[in-house]
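Quick review question:
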């Protein structure tokens, strides 16, 4: 359902600050309705922010952006949607494993989307982020 809404209302991301406000509203909603998800997202941000060369920023469409040496490698939205940039070969390999999806907007790029819903998803998200991180620091 959320993906349908995102695709239908995608034009709204062009309104200055609206995506950030919308994501902030989602963060508040998740905090009160799904504390486990909110904790998973916080845990991921804490883990990744401790890696050498990582910086954190506000993503232009809301959520937290992870940068390696000022280059974006991923971002996580407050609803648990994690988007990560890989090369296309790695993306195809990950798609075959069946746990990730094409990016919800840029399907033909190296971007992937992964929805965090459980503690196990959190661990896999950190694993994916570690892989993207290592691809960008070597």
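Suggested answer, residue by residue:
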């Amino acid at each position: 359902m959320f993906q349908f809404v995102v695709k239908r209302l995608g034009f709204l991301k062009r309104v200055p600050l609206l995506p950030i406000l919308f994501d902030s509203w989602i963060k508040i909603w998740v905090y009160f309705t799904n504390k486990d998800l909110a904790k998973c997202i916080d845990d991921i941000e804490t883990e990744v922010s401790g890696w050498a060369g990582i910086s954190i920023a506000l993503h232009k469409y809301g959520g937290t952006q992870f940068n390696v040496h000022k280059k974006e490698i991923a971002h996580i939205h407050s609803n648990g949607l994690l988007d990560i940039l890989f090369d296309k070969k790695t993306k195809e390999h990950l798609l075959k494993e069946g746990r990730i999806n094409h990016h919800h907007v840029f399907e033909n790029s190296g971007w992937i989307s992964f929805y965090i819903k459980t503690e196990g998803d959190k661990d896999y998200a950190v694993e994916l982020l570690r892989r993207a991180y290592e691809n960008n620091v070597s």
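Why it works: Strands lie at 54-58, 64-68, 71-76, 81-85, 101-102, 111-115. The first strand starts at residue 54 and ends at 58.
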